[in-house]
Specification:
Blueprint: H1 2-9, H2 19-23, E1 29-33, E2 39-43, H3 53-57, E3 73-79, H4 82-86, H5 93-103, E4 107-113, E5 119-124, H6 146-155, E6 160-163, H7 166-176, E7 183-188, H8 196-207, E8 212-219, E9 228-233, E10 238-242, H9 247-253, E11 276-280, H10 284-287, E12 298-302, H11 305-312, E13 318-322, H12 327-333, H13 347-356, H14 361-369, H15 373-399
Parallel strand pairs: 4-6, 6-7, 7-11
Antiparallel strand pairs: 1-2, 3-12, 3-13, 4-5, 8-9, 9-10, 11-12
Helix pairs in contact: 9-14, 13-14
Length: 400
Amino acid sequence: MEIEKLIYKEKQNCTGCIACVNSCPKKCISIKTDREGFWYPLINHEICIQCGNCDYSCPMLSDLDNFKNECNDIYAAINKDNNIRQSSSSGGMFQLLAENILDSGGIVFGAMFNDKWEVVHGYAENIDQLCRFRGSKYVQSYIGETYQLAEKNLKLGRKVLFSGTPCQIVGLKRYLRKEYEKLITVDLVCHGVPSPLVWQKYITFCSNGRKIYNIIFRNKKISWERYLIEFDFENSSTYQMPFDKDLYLKGFLSNLYLRPSCYSCRFKGVDRESDITLADFWGIDEILPDMNDHKGTSLVLLHTKKGDKIFSEIQNKIRVKKMNLYLNKIIEYNSSIIESAIYNPKKEKFFKELNNGKLSVNILIDKYTKTNINKRIYQNMRRKAASIKILKKIYRKILK
């Protein structure tokens, strides 16, 4: 099998989308977890019939070099419902797209927490269930059998919205092998997916024996730009920390424990296989200040006529501005649109120490994300300057 040769050659050749597992008619592909906590396929050759389904479904074997979208329209957008927007990571667009699908009797797939606070893909068939998908989750999501469930519902004639990372969307498309008019795919601008192993060790450290009631990766209580990670516990205690102070997010943003494939991602770019790409509209304050009240603004990239159609159907529920002329500026503020995460050379040593178990995960992340004094002073100056700028803008708006 080609996928085995790819993974044997380099682990960065597997995204962990497990399209191969979903596609196997003999169920001869299982999942093994490596020392970093990431998933890789393992083929049982005794029952494999050499059908080639796994190779065909692999996104790493897809030809993306000459891929071009039907359209590349760009928008800044804000959900008019402030409650939904406040509980969303940016402007609250996903909720409206999902509601549109559910209103027509469809089904929505996305990333959610399970009862162990692992991130997995699940589905929603009513609006009350959509809250499970709302908000960023900075852990690799386990696809499970959701590709199969999506296909089953498409064959029944239902509309399906499937959201995920760019590699997960390409994995779905490869698995399905054909275009479905009733399928809407939504990907995101992805920095990279962190290790589920590190995440589980971190929540064990954070909870310290307390039972977790809720986790929010991006609480916007201060502002959209200065978000907090929050753990709520059943004993009414809470852990809140700014993103640049929390150890887990520091390690994530330092690229310390991303999946190997994330350091050379094939699925970056403006042209994508999804219908819609959603992201934070970083830089909106400089590009279009009127669309920034520091509560979150979405960047929306439309790639297909299907994506354009569903986006047009939610226009009365959003504030929106077309931004096609600002693509270069947008990429300048959010380089993850086109660029992979830079490999952190401390990664190998970090995982070696993590696996020997002598030091706890919080101590190790702190150890491997420390910066020298000059860099720390520079970062603090930038943070203070950004905070002052935000406060001045808020103050000016109050005076108006």
